[in-house]
Each structure stands twice: as structure tokens, then as C-alpha cells.
Amino acid sequence: MRFSTEHLTIRQRQAMTAYLFLAVPAVFYTVIRFYPALESFYLSLTRWNIVSPTKQFVGLANYERLMKDPLFWKVMGNTFEYVAIGLPFGLALSFLIAYFLDKVSFGQGFLRALYFLPHIASTVAMAWVWRWLYQQPPIGLFNNLITDLGGDPQRFLTSTTQAIPAITAPVVWAGLGFNVVIFLAGLKAIPETYYEAARIDGASNWQILRRITLPLLKPTILFLAIINTIHLLRIFDQVYTMTQDGLGGPVNSTKPIVLHIYQTAFHKFDMGSASAATVVLFAILMLITLIQMKLLGKKP
Predict the structure, then answer these.
(1) Structure confidence by residue, pLDDT tens digits, 178-202
(2) pTM for the full predicted model
(3) Of 21, 99, 219, 242, which has the fewest CB atoms closer than 10 Å, so is most exposed?
């Protein structure tokens, strides 16, 4: 029996066409995203070593073991330390660049492109370059500059206290371009009449920034805060590339949750514990997303 659309109205045909096009990404996300996510939930309730054809159902045992694992809490602390360092520093620096770049009339597009280039560069290649910059003299550029100025060489990636800030620096540097572009869009969306009225009333640049620019940029700031938080919570490439043998050292001092999940799954072949940690990370990301929706839904 052949299906005919002759009896359908134009509006119904347009709707059918739209649904056909929407079906492609829907199938893609179901197969590539949703099914693996649901499978991960199920695996977190089992004991499976990835090579065995059978999975043993153990209930919440993986989660209980996770909560009692000191290493899990260590990597969670490391992960939130990346957020605590990278989020405020990255947003503040991005806003300052965008704020002054917005006042540039000549060559703004060229400068914006220069800032955006690190965002599209290869993460692994960028991490290797920064790893070279942190090396000891006479190889590392940073330590060469420090010694030339009379200071002592720093350990950077081999220090338990300096390693996380050292790894966070290239993450912030790579994200500057995206943040600057979004901040610029937010700044240009503010009506110029607000600034003109403030200047007529005798407001200073600081008062204009504090009472007009920043309040009207609240949705932009919230959006970038959530995006950058999620990005930092999922940090992996930089740590895997910049630490010795990709272990998140020294002494697990830089290991984030995603690297811990990777090692648990593909080094220890403990897919149940790895899936349980993945579910915990998913819950954290979901909570942040819900907070974003709540905050962005509020009227200013």
C-alpha cells in the first residue's frame, strides 16, 4: 500500500517535512547519546570487567565503595579546585579584554580573531607546548625568565601545590576567545541610550560599569559561568597530556574525576565503579544545569 500526501493540507505537509528533518538528529542523539547514558546507569549497578560476557548485578555496591574510597574524594577535590581557580580568573580576564576591546574601533575584528585562535587550536598540541614552557632550565621558557630576573626555578608540573594552577592556566588561555566573543555580544546588546543618559547625569565610568554594564550583562555572565564550570568539571586532555605518563601526578595531586573514570575503566577494567563515578559526575552537571535554568528564568 503506497502512502499518499495528496489529502494533506500545505501546513500538514510542512509539518511532516519538519518532523522528517528533526528525526535525523533525534535518531543520532538516541543512538549516540541517550542509549550510552542509560547503559551507563545500568552498568553502575553491576560488576563487569569489560572482557567478560556476563554482568553481575550488585545494586548500589559500587556507589557505596565509591563513597568510602579516599581517592575518589581526592579527585573530586582536585576537580573543584580547577573550577575554583579557573572560573573566576577566566571570567574576569575575559570580561576585561572584551570591555576594552569593545572600545576599539580600528582592527577590532582582527584582534577578536587573534583571541579566538587558541579556542580552535588542538588541545593536545597546545598542552604539549605549555608542558615545554614549564620545563626546568635551560629548556623551559618560564623558568628561564624567572632565573634571568634573579629568581629560583619553579617546579610547576612536578609540584603538588603548583601543578593544578599550572594546568589551569592553559585551560583559561584556550577559553579566552570564546568568552571574549560572548562578552562582546552582550556588551553590544546594551542600548547606547543608557550610557548617554548616565553621562548626562554626570555618572563616572566606574558608576556606569557598576550600575549599568554589569547588571545588564547578568544573563551573559551566568551563561558563561555555567559553560565554563561544566568545561572545567570535565577537564581531561590537559591533565592527561601535561602530567607524567598521564597519571594525574604528582601523587594524584592533579587527577580530575574524568581521568579517574578513564583509569578505572580502561586500566583496572572495573566498568561498574567507573560507571558509578560517571553517574555522580552526571548528577553534578545536571544540578548545575538546573541552577542555570532557575537563575536565567528569574526576571532582573
Answers:
(1) 999 999 999 999 999 999 999 998 8
(2) 0.88
(3) 21
